[in-house]
């Protein structure tokens, strides 16, 4: 349901009437660099969408000799394991200017993000189904509430600094089956095991931004 609201917000952003300024900004840094596209309908508000992306590829290869119990002899082997994961972080937010002092504009900002994780794991060319299921069981949400200021060199460009609180929520649901022994009846039965993991992280953040207004 939350994903539906995020998509609706994005649709409204792109279909709004063009009567203000389009904006573009980047936030360089040592972590996840970000960029945003925005729309400024008046002097007080900037509506924006942003996007971040991270990809990780990992491979491990092992070769040598090992004992094969079926053939009853030592055999050479070569195992190759590959893992590829991608993190997509779209977000939508609003910036509200609260005070203007000459070329310096102070603002409050709020945005909501929906990180999405994708990837696969392979062992000797065979994809792991359990890894695929574990990825599907992960749900993430995030948000930022911050205060910042922009110095406008002219009406088309500003340099900004921002500090705030970031919220990250992660939930992982995993279901499996297991055989349990009942000593009262002397029989075994199949049972479903449900694991529900939740994680909340709330670190502070700071960033510098380059903002362009068209």
> What is the first-to-last residue Cα distance?
35 Å
**Which runs of at least 5 residues are low in confidence (pLDDT < 50)?**
5-18
Overall domain count: 1
Helical percentage: 10-25%
Query: Helices and strands: which structural class?
Result: mainly beta
Inertia-based shape: elongated
CATH level-two architecture: Beta Barrel
CATH topology value = Porin
* Count of DSSP-assigned helices: 2
Oligomer: single chain
CATH class category name = Mainly Beta
pLDDT averaged residue by residue: 85
Summarize the structure.
This protein is mainly beta.
Structural description of this entry:
There is one protein chain. With 214 residues, the chain is mainly β. The protein has a single domain (2-59, 86-213), classed as Porin, CATH 2.40.160.20. Helices cover 10% and strands 72% of the residues. The protein has two helices and eleven strands; from the N terminus they run αβββββββαββββ. An eight-stranded antiparallel β-barrel has the order 1-2-3-4-5-8-9-11. β4 (73-101) and β5 form a beta hairpin. The two termini are 35 Å apart. Residues 5-18 have low confidence and may be disordered.
SSE layout:
Elements lengths: L1 H14 L5 E7 L6 E7 L4 E24 L4 E29 L2 E10 L2 E8 L2 E2 L1 H8 L1 E17 L2 E26 L4 E15 L2 E10 L1
Antiparallel strand pairs: 1-2, 1-11, 2-3, 3-4, 4-5, 4-6, 5-8, 6-7, 8-9, 9-10, 9-11
Give a quick set of tags describing it.
eight-stranded antiparallel barrel, 2 helices, 10% helix, Porin, 214 residues, mainly beta
């Amino acid at each position: 349901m939350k994903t539906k609201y995020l998509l609706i917000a994005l649709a409204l952003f792109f279909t709004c009437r063009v009567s203000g300024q389009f904006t573009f900004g980047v936030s360089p840094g040592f972590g996840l660099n970000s960029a945003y596209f925005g729309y400024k309908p008046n002097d007080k508000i900037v509506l924006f969408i942003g996007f971040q992306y991270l990809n990780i590829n990992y491979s491990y290869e092992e070769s040598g000799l090992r004992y094969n119990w079926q053939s009853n002899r030592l055999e050479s082997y070569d195992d190759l394991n590959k893992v590829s994961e991608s993190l997509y972080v779209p977000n939508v937010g609003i910036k509200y200017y609260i005070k203007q002092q000459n070329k310096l504009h102070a603002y409050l900002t709020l945005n909501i993000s929906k990180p999405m994780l994708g990837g696969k794991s392979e062992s000797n060319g065979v994809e792991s189904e359990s890894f695929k299921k574990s990825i599907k069981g992960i749900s993430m949400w995030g948000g930022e509430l911050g205060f910042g200021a922009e110095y406008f060199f002219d009406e088309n460009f500003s340099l900004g600094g921002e500090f705030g609180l970031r919220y990250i929520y992660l939930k992982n649901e995993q279901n499996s089956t297991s055989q349990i022994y009942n000593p009262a009846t002397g029989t075994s039965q199949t049972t479903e095991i449900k694991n529900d993991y939740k994680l909340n992280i709330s670190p502070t953040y700071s960033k510098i931004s380059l903002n362009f207004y068209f």
